[in-house]
Amino acid sequence: MAPPLKIGIAGLGTVGAGVVRMLARRADAISARVGRPVEVVAVSARNRARDRECDLSGMRWYDDAVELARDPDIDVFVELIGGPDGIAKAAVEAAIAAGHSVATANKALLAHHGVELAAAAEAAGVALHFEAAVAGGIPVIKTLREALLGNEIARVSGILNGTCNYILTRMQEEGLSFDTCLDQAQKLGYAEADPTFDVDGFDTAHKLALLAALAFGVKPDPEAIHVEGIRSITLADIEAADELGYRIKLLGVAARIGGQVELRVHPTMVPKHWPIAQVSGVTNAVAIDGDAVALTLVGPGAGGDATASAVVADLCDVAAGRGGAPLGWRAASLQPAEKAAIRRHEGGYYIRLAAVDRPGTAAAIARHMAEQNISLESIMQHRRGRPHGGERAESAEDPAPVVLVTYATNEDAVRRAIDAIEIDGVIALPPQVIRIEKD
Ligand code: HSE
Question: Record-annotated residues binding L-homoserine (predicted)?
């Protein structure tokens, strides 16, 4: 049997400790299948004393991840520190410079610096694998990089953030507030250290940037993505969506439209009967539309074991000598991603207005929609007093929630109509606009 593949792991949180445990538990099966043992020989973390429920005996300990990355007696450096810059970036650069392959779960690092790191890995002849960076345990990187190579991809879309999907699911199923659900997601360990990254859509955008690179050969570039998070979604929207036959999901979408790749992340209303609408909790889903194969992958998007499973798969690939261009295309051949022109987006829209409850309001709203040539599929007005959902006694001063659903139109027309409605003073709170995906 070939000599062991020696691993150094920086970051021993739930994922790092999970990798150590999984490699120990599956040692015999892994070495039998990849032709050599895969052994963790060195680790680095902030707190040496913490009990991680994994056996670290016999492993070299480093306080400094960059020093671990330079250890001449490792073959692969596993980066589980996180963050787009700082120690994570310095350590990955040091590992590649030292001729070590890298496996990382760091989507922020690769979304911001993927092109230069991939180029460095290609030049050094080492692997840079990142299956764990996108959709946790779902093998979507391998699917795009290898399994669907024969396909021309038209669109990749999905639920890429477990925290957001968990929050939206619990709001919908249990009528809980956004804050309560976020708190739970943090306690369960799904959320990023700074949950802003989850709920404001940046985590999804980082993952989408990597999927778009693999699918379309565009440089990962978070700046090119139109990003909206889920903070503005209220129980009123969740209830209205339900009544209208939709679920609200935070989707990341990369689609080839004409000669361009449109990249966007935003809450989206999807018909209840679509498979993606039924993906609940921390589960992720990625739908890939190829010219030969269209498929949807569904699986755990966050959590220690699921993410560790993806890291271990990357390590097995290195052990078996499976590599290739990290981003699926040579780094030098990647094309710049163009900023999504969201005002040109076409589709149906859900618009919720807190209408001032007096004569003429409905007429004003309808007039401004008509002026922009927007045709309405449905109009729904609830009784006063629930501008953000929930129950309380109504007051004559309360606005009346009006929900409009448009037929296919474009975003520019919708924004112009809403601007005009706001100028008329017939709405009491900022409007809510959610894009709709339909059959
Ligand atoms: N915070 C991320 C999520 C973890 O909620 O999906 C996995 O990237």
Answer: 192
Q: Catalogue all structural domains in the chain, each as residue range(s) with its CATH number.
A: 5-133 (3.40.50.720), 143-300 (3.30.360.10), 344-436 (3.30.70.260)
Q: Work out whether strand 153-159 and strand 346-355 pair parallel, antiparallel, or are unpaired.
A: unpaired
Closest to 414 measured CA to CA, from 362, 351, 356, 341: 351
Q: What is the dihedral of CA 248, 253, 258, 261, to 10 degrees?
A: 150
Among protein residues, the one whose CA lies closest to atom 8 of ligand 1: 302
Q: Mind listing the pLDDT tens digit for each residue in 126-145?
A: 999 999 999 989 999 999 99
By three-state DSSP, how is residue 244 classified?
A: helix
The alpha carbon torsion through 139, 140, 141, 147 (nearest 10 deg) reads: 90
Instruction: Using DSSP, state whether 295 is helix, strand or coil.
Output: strand
SS3 assignment, position 123 = helix
Which segments of 152-303 does DSSP mark as H helices, in order?
162-174, 178-187, 196-199, 202-216, 235-244
Of 89, 142, 207, 249, which one is the catalytic site residue?
Answer: 207
Report pLDDT digits (tens) over 227-276.
999 999 999 999 999 999 999 999 999 999 888 899 999 999 999 999 99
If you measure from the C-alpha of residue 89 to the centroid of ligand 1, how many angstroms do you get, rounded to a whole number? 20
Residue 56: both structure tokens together: 């670290």
- Strand-pairing partners, residue 42, are 8, 60
- Tell me the best of 134, 192, 311 to mutate to test the pocket of ligand 1, counting ligand atoms within 8 Å of each CB and taking the most: 192
- Prediction pTM value: 0.94
Whether 388 has a pLDDT exceeding 70, the answer reads: no
The predicted-structure confidence for 275-322, as pLDDT tens digits, reads as follows 999 999 999 999 999 999 999 999 999 888 999 999 999 999 999 999
Position in ligand 1 atom list of the atom nearest CA 163: 5
Two tokens at 421?
């409605």
Q: Ligand 1 centroid to 356 CA: how many Å? A: 40
